[in-house]
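Lab manual, section 2.4: Encoding a predicted structure.

Procedure: take the sequence of the chain (66 residues), apply the prediction step described in section 2.3, and record the output as structure tokens. A sample record is shown.
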Amino acid sequence: MKRKINIHCRKDRKGLRMSYTPTGDGKSLVLQGITISCPYCKEARSLHNMTEEMFLEKLVGDKFFI
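Recorded output:
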């Protein structure tokens, strides 16, 4: 079973009710062209040119703070 990585807001540390499942391809781009907005602080963020390898390096436990 593949692990699920929960995505959280780095400003207020709350969960964004979305998750990412790694594909295993370290060179593929993750969440390309997707803008994520926090329902609590209303700030919008997106990932640009981030590979899955870079994404997995920035994990804190099973959480990714965007």
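Check your result against the sample. The chain has a mean pLDDT of 93.
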